[in-house]
Structure formats: C-alpha cells, structure tokens
Amino acid sequence: MTSSLPFLPFSRPTIDEETIAAVAQVLRSGWLTSGPKVQAFEAQLSEYFGGRHVRTFNSGTCTMEIALRIAGIGPGDEVITTPLSWPATANVILAVGATPVFADVDPLTRNLDLVKVRAAITPATRALLPVYLSGLPLDMEALYALALEHGLRVIEDAAQAFGSVWDGRRIGAFGDFASFSFQANKNLTTGEGGCLVMTNAEEARLAEKYRLQGVTRSGVDGIDVDVLGGKWNMTDIAATIGLGQLATIDDVTAHREQLARHYFACFGAEFEAATGAQLPLPAFGSSNWHLFQIILPDRGPGTRAAFMRRLQEEHNIGTGFHYAPIHLFTLYRERGFKEGMFPVAERIGRLTVTLPLFAAMTLADVERVVGAVKQVLT
Ligand SMILES: *Cc1c(COP(=O)(O)O)cnc(C)c1O
Predict the structure, then answer these.
(1) Which atom in ligand 1 lies closest to the alpha carbon of residue 132?
(2) Mean pLDDT of 309-338
(3) d(Cα 52, Cα 156) in Å, to the nearest integer?
(4) Is the CB–ligand 1 distance for residue 129 below 6 Å?
C-alpha cells in the first residue's frame, strides 16, 4: 500500500516573493555582509521584544555560547539544563569550558522539571539554561524566582519559541538572556542565524565584540582586540530574509495555532485512551506551535522507527524526532552520564515523534496526517 498524494515533510520554510525580491536587491547592492539590513533587522527585533537590546549572529548555537561568555561562565562553573534538546544546548556549555548538569523533564510539558532543577543546584551552579521545547515556555515566574533565590543567570534557549507567550508577554520581552535560532526549520528563519536579547547596553557591546574577533574600532583607523571573539556575524542577505519573515510572523503563528487546534479536533477525545499515545499539552495562548509532537505507545525496541517508516512508506508523510536524550551521546557518556539517570527524558526521547506542522500546511494536510497516524496505531 502506497500513497498517491505528494510527499508531506514535517517542516518546510515559506519565503514570500517580496522577500525573494529584497534578497535579489541585496545581492545587486554591493554589500553582502553585516550592514544596513542587519542594523534594520536588529532594530525591528528590539521593537518586537519591547525595546530590549538585541544582536544577531549566524546561528542559534553561537548565540547561546556568546550569552555564556558575556555572563562570564567558564571552567569550574556548572550550568543546569535539560537532556531533551538538540545537542547544541549542552555542547555550548562544554564549549566555554563549563560543566553541564542535567535535570530531568516533566512528563507533560516535556520541559525541565523545576523541582529537579532545584535539587541539582550546588555551590558551583552559575546559570540555568532552560529549553522551551516545541515552543512551550516554562512557568516563567517559578523559573525566575528560583534563579533569583540562588543568584543564577538564566540563558533561555528560546530557539524554538519565537512568538511564544507567557502570561500575556512575549518570550524574550522579559527576563535575562533569551537566545533564538533562525535555522531553516524554525518559525522565523534567515536560512541560518540567531539573535540574543539582553538586559543592558554593556552586554550588547560585548556581544558585538564576541561576534567579530573581539574587535573594537575607534577613530578612522583605530582597532584593538581585548577579548577572544569569533566569526559569528550575520550577513545582510540573511537579515533581509529575517526582515521579510518578521513582517509575517504574527500571521504565521496564528496559522500554526489553527493547525494545532485542528490536530486536537481530528485526533478527538478518545485517541489517547484508544491507542495509548500521548498528545502534547493543548497550550493555546502560550505555545507558538513550533512542533506538534506525540509520544507513541511503547511497543518495545524499534517502536518509533517502525512508526516513522510506515508513515513514510505507506502514507508519504515525513516525521522527525526531537530529541534523543543528550546525556546518552558518547561525548556525554564519557563524562559519566548513563541510562537511568533521567528516566522521563529517556522514555520521551525513545518514543516522541514530530508530526508535520509548518506555515504552508492546510487543514486538509492535518486530516491526512491524523488519518494515517490512526491507521498505523490501530
Ligand atoms: C535549533 C535549535 C538550536 C540550535 O540552533 P542553530 O541555529 O541550529 O544553531 C538549539 N536549541 C534548540 C532547542 C533548537 O531547536
């Protein structure tokens, strides 16, 4: 049995014709690297985040690494994060020479469990690095109360949370550092890229240094390097894509929410009991619906691979898995992590599947996916 319908991927970027024309103009302009478009994009992002300081970079990964550097985190410091994320989240902690400490996730939100985070705090803890998986924020009041109580910085890995909201306020518009990714699958893309929202002008100045070799310029020909920076600046080509995406992000978020609502309606109230699968939390009004993830019923080793293969081969539907637990990768096992340490993240990491959800999808596409999932699971 194979589907005659076109392939439906789990994610696909949408770039409108105005944006394509604007990129063509940049290509003809004689200025490709960081310039007026980056400045304009940063100004609009700052406005979007309530006037806070924003700087752009060429990935969400280096954005988090730079936040750690600005916070002065390095060797001897512990940073608490979730094992259920893309490797970047923990890799950046290693990259600055600090020690990643994992805490398990909550089975319903699939985000850091703040009770477990509290238990993981030691005198060496310097920062919390929470992830808003699929665009669902943590309880931000509880997160910041815990950070304040222990004098910790917070570097929010908000890579997936552009357009997410907590208690009526945009993620990034309040708090400490908020790091966003503009990688191609994210709700707002620049091809590759990221931005960091910061608290004050001094941090923004440091961010500018770290993203370009630590250079400070003065006068006509003055130049100095006083910190070790990297090559992390965004191009005007990428910023132009970002400007086009930012103009439509509210509509995109609204459409994603409509698709998510349709997923819940089509799965129906009896889906979980009938199949043993688990839907995401219906977090309307806070999630930006970056991903729509279900947890499969455990049918032994190979459960997820078999499910993904059948959706692909019998229904021509692509799926993803976000994520395999970071602590079980070789690099982290070598640092003493092993199975059984974070059982909730390990179970979700084994059984989570990401269903298609992207800006150009239709309600009919959702119906097609739900029909296929029900057929495979029952
Ligand atoms: C995408 C993503 C990153 C990394 O962002 P890049 O732009 O690919 O470097 C980090 N953390 C999470 C949770 C992500 O989804």
Answers:
(1) 13
(2) 98
(3) 15
(4) no
Distance 160 CA to ligand 1 centre (A): 7
* Strand 153-157 with 177-181, pairing: parallel
Q: Which of 228, 246, 264 is the last residue of a domain?
A: 246
CA of 178 to the centre of ligand 1 (A): 13
Write the CA distances from 223 to 16, 209, 219, 226, integer angstroms. Answer: 40, 12, 9, 10
Active site residues: 186
pLDDT tens per residue across span 232-268: 999 999 999 999 999 999 999 999 999 999 999 999 9
Ligand 1 lined by 88 (C-beta under 6 Å): yes
Give the nearest ligand 1 atom to 322 CA: 15
For atom 2 of ligand 1, the residue with the nearest CA is: 159
Top mutation candidate among 82, 85, 86, 241 for ligand 1, by most atoms within 8 Å of CB: 86
Indicate which atom in ligand 1 lies nearest the CA of residue 186.
Answer: 1
The two beta strands, 215-218 and 78-81, are unpaired
| Tally of structural domains, the chain | 2
Q: Write down which residue in 231, 246, 261 finishes a domain.
A: 246
pLDDT in tens, 42-93: 999 999 999 999 999 999 999 999 999 999 999 999 999 999 999 999 999 9
| 327: DSSP letter | G
- The larger pLDDT score, comparing residue 2 to residue 216, is at 216
Q: Do both 84 and 96 map to the same domain?
A: yes
CATH number for the domain harbouring residue 344: 3.90.1150.10
What pLDDT score was predicted for residue 322? 97
Q: What is the DSSP string of 231-291?
A: B-PPPHHHHHHHHHHHHHHHHHHHHHHHHHHHHHHHH-TTHHHHH--BPPP--TTT---S-
195 CB under 6 A from ligand 1? no
- Ligand 1 within 6 A of 187 CB? no
* Domain coverage including residue 60: 17-246
Q: Give the CATH number of the domain where residue 141 resides.
A: 3.40.640.10
Q: Tell me whether residue 275 is in a domain.
A: yes
pLDDT tens digits along 154-196: 999 999 999 999 999 999 999 999 999 999 999 999 999 999 9
